[in-house]
Design a protein that fits this description.
Distance between the termini: 49 Å
Strand order of the largest sheet: 1-2-3-5-4-6-7-8-9
Number of helices: 8
Structural class: alpha/beta
Bound molecules: alpha-D-glucopyranuronic acid
Order of helices and strands: HEEEEHEHEHEHHEHEH
């Protein structure tokens, strides 16, 4: 039986469909006490709030206080970026509380030929200076994870890594499509390590507090909070159409994008790229990464309360399709990659399928079938899905689908 002393990494991950435990998919349209939801009003008034509260208290964790006052300072701007097609702005948002300050810098490219541009918003993993070949991008001074692969040492980024992630950001295609792109180094909002003395959490502690309480926010909720503050800034920007912002994220940042979409209904659309466990993938299948594994490897990502489900997914009264449903009826794109079995593509697909019941209530098209599509055969509905060939990554193929879909949906 459940032995929380065991190290979960001692369990081999399962990839065998025949070894998936039997479980019932929690019905998004039946309340925790058994009431059937048949109308939009009931969803909004009764079911959505109870699901939301469950995810907030038991999965990602609650933000202890409202915290959205900041000052914005333009650090740099240019009129001739991305082959002359875009303007660039680098803006620092600063937050003060408890005698501490948090800053993060957003890099924004906007198409020159659009007055008020819709945009994609997404965090990057390795610093703003990695997303484009642009010498003007400021290099973050925040904590960076050392990496032999990328030549990062001393926990600092340097110009040696300029442009190394351009492959993950189809910026020119985004600009050509009339969209802007805003990106932030996620480590400026909360460094991705099991340390709660840094990042945004520490600004909201009560006296003597060292870490969030068990029902309070981990790092994923902190990153989602940062996405919302970027939205606050867009609402004040004359050249950005804040009613058409698509929040995007890959992998752990896809988990954060989904939670941002759920917590902040100002986001017009959401894209989850290979978000996997604790993102789009169903937890109860226990394929690839499991709740126990993720909480062991990344104890700081979720709330303390989520640890109660380590190797105990069957006790969850919800599953991740209900996180997707919290985004309804807004456009949502769930994408997987064939070689990314750790993220359980089938579990991501089925999650989109089961969330579609709620989209249906709003007369929106989701994923009607429970048969996975072929690779590279997108289902570009309001709730969209694709599985492409290749590894855990963000590719031009992914962006091509997202751009076309966003143009149609917004
Ligand atoms: C690890 C982690 C995943 C996460 C991924 C990423 O593989 O187990 O949950 O999505 O990192 O962020 O790339």
């Amino acid at each position: 039986l459940l032995n929380t002393q065991l190290s979960f990494s001692q369990f081999e991950p399962n990839y065998d469909e025949s070894k998936i435990p039997n479980f019932d998919i929690p019905d998004p349209l039946t309340t925790f006490d058994g009431q059937k939801i048949t109308r939009k009003g009931q969803w909004k008034r009764i079911r959505r709030p109870e699901l939301y509260t469950f995810f907030e208290e038991n999965v990602y964790g609650k933000i202890p206080a409202e915290f959205n006052d900041f000052s914005a300072k333009i650090l740099e701007q240019g009129e001739n970026a991305i082959n002359g097609k875009a303007k660039r702005r680098q803006v620092e948002l600063s937050f003060d509380r408890n005698g501490r300050t948090l800053h993060f810098t957003m890099l924004i490219y906007l198409p020159k030929n659009v007055k008020k541009a819709p945009l994609f918003l997404g965090y990057n993993f390795l610093g703003n200076h990695t997303v484009a070949d642009d010498e003007n991008i400021l290099i973050s001074e925040a904590w960076a994870r050392n990496s032999d692969k990328y030549g990062i040492s001393g926990n600092k980024f340097t110009s040696a890594t300029r442009g190394i992630r351009t492959n993950r950001w189809a910026i020119e295609e985004i600009i050509d499509a009339g969209f802007g792109l805003a990106t932030i180094y996620y480590g400026e909002v909360d460094p991705d390590k099991d340390d709660f003395t840094d990042g945004v959490h520490s600004l909201l502690y009560s006296q003597g507090q060292q870490k969030p309480n068990d029902n309070e926010w981990g790092s994923l909720a902190a990153w989602a909070w940062g996405y919302s503050r970027a939205m606050d800034y867009f609402e004040k920007s004359k050249d950005i159409n804040s009613s058409k912002v698509v929040v995007f994220g890959h992998s752990r940042l896809g988990k954060a994008a989904l939670w941002a979409g759920a917590t902040d209904e100002r986001f017009a659309a959401v894209i989850s790229n290979d978000s996997g466990c604790g993102g789009a993938a169903l937890s109860k299948r226990k394929v690839g990464e499991t709740v126990g594994r993720i909480n062991e490897s990344f104890p700081h990502w979720f709330s303390g309360n989520f640890k109660a489900y380590n190797n105990n997914e069957e006790a969850l009264p919800i599953d991740q399709h209900e996180l997707l449903a919290l985004i309804a009826p807004r456009p949502l794109y769930v994408a997987s990659a064939q070689e990314d079995q750790w993220a359980d593509p089938k579990g991501e697909f089925l999650s989109a399928h089961y969330a579609s019941e709620v989209y249906k209530l709003f007369k929106k098209d989701g994923i009607a079938t429970d048969e996975m599509p072929m690779t590279n055969q997108p289902i570009p509905n309001t709730l969209a899905y694709h599985i492409r060939t290749g590894i855990h990554d963000v590719t031009d193929y992914d962006w091509e689908q997202y751009i076309q879909w966003a143009q149609k949906q917004l």
